[in-house]
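Q: How do we represent a protein-ligand complex in a form that can be generated token by token?
A: Start from the inputs.
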Amino acid sequence: MVDISKLISEMTTEEKIGQLVQYNANLFIDSEAGITGPLTDAGLTPEDIGRIGSVLNFKNAEEVCKIQDMHLAADRNKIPMVFMMDVIHGYRTIFPIPLGLGCSFDTELVKECTRMASDEASAAGIQVTFTPMVDYVRDARWGRVMETCGEEPLLNGLMGAAQVEAFRGEGIEKPGNLATCVKHYAAYGGAEAGRDYNTVELSEHTLREFYLPAYKACIDAGVDMLMPSFNSLNGVPSVANNWLMNDILRDEWGFDGLVISDYNAIGELITHGVAADIKEAAEKAFNCGCHIEMCSSGYVKHLAELVDEGKVSAEKLDEAVYKVLELKARLGLFEDPYHGASPEAEAAHSLTPTNRAVAKKAAMESAVLLKNENILPFKKEVRKVALIGPFADNHEIIGFWSCQGKNEESVSVKEGVAALLPDAEIVVAKGCSNKWNELDASGIAEAVAAAEAADAVILCLGEPQNYSGEGNCRTDIDLPGIQNQLAEEVAKANSNTAAIIFTGRPLVLSKLNACIPAILNMWFPGTEGGSAAAALLFGDANPCGKLSMSFPKSVGQCPIYYNHTNTGRPKPNEDRHYGYNSNYIDCGNLPLFSFGHGLSYSNFVYEDMTLSSDSLTADGSLEVKITVLNDSAVEGKETVQLYMRDMVASNVRPVQQLIAFNKISLAPGERKTITFTIKEEMLRFWNNENKYVSEPGEFRLSTGCADHLIKTQSVILK
Ligand code: NOJ
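Then emit the structure tokens for the protein with 1-deoxynojirimycin bound:
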């Protein structure tokens, strides 16, 4: 076992600082980088590079082993480098985007996918993943909504914690397991107008109530690292925000792990205008407790000087180095610097049939049947199927942040349907482009002809993969280009038409909804997207996803979310129980499809909701029993959701808040009663003094989903 304190006592200041710096792999293996490229741009010397302690953005196990070998041969201290990268929704086998996985409401499924991603990534050389990403979101214009589990703090936190546990497995020292880094702390998803990297202004109340809980859930689950966000929060960029980084993160939550900046975020303190130069930026970030600087050069160039000048304490420097070396030791890198990675292991673990099978299951469980007017499932006996639209014969459905996932390794809709229906005639017509600025309508006639001649029509629509993800924000979140026109004309030609949607965000589907009787949202479903879509469309699988984020009727409604508060003048008579807090004259106030919505081929009847008591004391508990019947001939799964509304409190409370859920499977005709236990702590909120409290009075408990409450009962908290 390495003696970290002794090692630190033998290191020079420059060597210590090297441990606090992370750069891209090309600096270490690209001989050009030192002469004309990024090395020179960053003002680094070959000696600086020799001391650097961690690497990101490498390709595979071969590259990792090569960099590690070169480094260990040159480093007099023999301290292995640590290799970090983003494993967001799979590594080589790609699972649905996190916003889709959120719709599964199934933490065990998320763990299963995460285990597989961890296995593949670890064999390929990754030792730490920049996951989970649990930014809370309300604005579908923001491209990074795809990386989160949506607009519900509880769900987001549970999914984040599930990832932390699954990546850790039996311990991060074991090959196959990864250390984790929760991000982006804090409130990156609150970017004004949904524009990436934009300013965030939030009250402390809203921050605590909605934005912070998921990060905290990951910390409670034992996440190893944390990444501050790019944005400024109430005027201060996160990496230099003492209130966030110390008052909340360390003093209040007790986080003791390693903190790494986001990519060049320390350098960007200059662009933000809160540091005059990179030296001041380094001082601010380091003194806020950011241990590792990713891809800017403040630490490597100025930290030693800052220590000499007394602006940074030498003890704090040693503490930061200790944390880095401790993580390396916990990963077992001093014993096995490759952490089990090798080209052979990588090949053996990648894209196995088992991984593909789980990817298919995950894609089926993440899909959400938004609408179905007796169209789906199509009969498998159909003779002629028309696949129409830009995603009909398209492998680009794995989504942004797909690591080593390859589009060409995914199953397209055409391939999925052909495999399921070997005897059917399948006709493909693209009809039009999925890009916003490609408006050529000349393919529509062929698509209409194909639709006319078919027994069943599947419109395969959506936005390209690179319309979501980092930096990819949109002001118009309708189906890009002329896809609505295509849909309208195809639907006129054949009424037996269903649409499937590929997307990284909730889209505005109002025009599509007006002309198409069935819509199945696939998100970006990953490697097995096409086979999952085929199974769902033809009834081999039953849709069970529930929306993790609301779909607006119009982009003008954004930000829109189910757990809003009322104003004093809510609009009373839309089909939601508790009114709404504004009143658009041209669109209404409800989303087109709300959080929690999702249909099934089964017919679930919520028969009964009973409480074990109509009152609750602070130290007591009560049981809510909900009985659900599957009144259909089709086996299916239902996520039973339990919402709460605090009727009167010292500040305004959301009209609904999800406090529990349970996904159950019901055979035809089967009836199940599920029990939720309610305790006082589930009824707490952040009051005006920023204390987490409950207040006595009436609480309404409801089941159903956010836009369709089915049963409601009151309980009095004494
Ligand atoms: C920038 C992104 O914001 C962050 O999520 C990611 O972890 C880093 N780049 C490293 O890839």
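The chain has three domains: 4-346, 361-537, 604-717. Confidence is low (pLDDT under 50) at residues 575-581.
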